[in-house]
Request: fold
Amino acid sequence: MGSPKVEIKDVAKSYEGKAVLQDVGLSVDVHEVVCLIGSSGSGKSTLLKCLNLLVPIDSGDILLDGKSIITGSVNPNEVRQKMGIVFQSFNLFPHMSVLQNVILSPTKVHGVSTGEATDLATQLLEQFGLLDKIHEYPDRLSGGQQQRVAVVRSLATKPELMLFDEVTSALDPELVAEVLGVIRGLKDDGMTMIIATHEMGFARDVGDRVCFLDQGVILEHGPAKQFFADPQEARTRQFLQRIIEAGRL
Amino acid sequence: MSSVGPPSPEGPEIGRARLLPTGLGLRAILREEGARSALIAASSTVLLIGLVLWWVLSSEAWPAVQKQFFSPVHFRAAWPDVLGGFWLDIKMFLVAEVLILVIALLLAMIRSLRGPAFFPLRALVIIFIDLVRGIPIILLILLLGFGIPALQLTGVPNSALFWGVATLVISYSAYTAEVYRAGIESVHESQRMAARSLGLTQFQALRYVLVPQAIRNVVPALLNGFISLQKDVALVFVLGVREGVREAQIYTASTFNYTGYLAATVLFLSVSVPLARFTDWYTERDRRRKQAVGS
Reply:
């Protein structure tokens, strides 16, 4: 494998005395795809938000390209410019058209001219089959389309690392595939990604490695195929068994 | 016990006939009901107004009051000056409102910034808002309107008009900032998070993402503020500014007739009532649109 893109070291986080993350350590290489799985409330979302500095950590360290992003001298906005995040609830800006959503960060944060940003946005929207929606407002789009726009909005900032926070959990079942397809496409392009997901089949196919979080702790992690074929921990087997019983794997 | 007794023989029959008429029948009943409601509303209104009028007009003092407050001659005589003063009220209102909308938004944005680095700014804004909202506006006008010119500071205007309007701007900015802040807080937290995750600074997130959505939510409240300010500009008369109410007062002082106040009342109503109707109309339209989107 290549050099680590992100290294998470002994990260802990608690809300009002309740530990949400404990001693979490994880390293993700360039071009690697790591899937975070675990039940709701296991800390997957919090871990992604900590990486993006949207949630401050209590202790531990996070390195991006070998440099700590936790020290006070780091500008969080510069860190976020290298990392895209897509949320479960899309979070498109409802008062802006698709195009305006996509070019906001390139023009206001990255100093790209409106013309240039529009060209890139058009190209990305075409690539993701959304070109005919370019002037629509978010409330006129389906959930799947909104989520794909959210991915494009993130990609338009040319991130080196993409974080996905249960991006299909709020979608109708028939819309899940189009969003997962987009992420598969990104893997083929070599994007480094950390994906929190409840879609186990997808995690097995797309993930190079899988991490199982349970009550804020990484209980087990390993290569995706091996993880699903031969889980080591009793708690992991129990979790996977329930998923299989629910017909989701 | 009557509710559990046997239903009256006619009750259900009438009910069924009323509930299940077909075609024209239903419409006819609805039209009849509508006409009846309108008739009841009109007659009760006329009755109420009639009673109040009779009560007032039967007072022994009414002829004197009529001469003092409702004299057509004095109305015509006072009108030009009061109208001239009222134009100044309108101008003060327009200038103040524009400044208030801008300054209040800045205050609300500063108050919405997060993190320890912005604490001093936030604290200043909170102190300002608390102080201004804690002082009766008339007292604030007297304090600043007479106090600051008395200091004779170089480079600071001394005119009562300037300080009267400035006080209105200061006072209304504090209230309006809270209206904006409520609007900003009504936008879901995930919007702020999405904006920050794209690398926008706190200020950019407010400027491009939160405030545009917030303003849409608070337009009715802002319009209510317009109505309030449109009347409160008259308070600067205490500084001797010759606006509408002051002109009416001058007329009264020289003629011992109060009809000038009636002229001022008519003028203020001619602006505030349409503004109130517009606010209601806009709020209702806004509510319907939100329901349409929600469904």
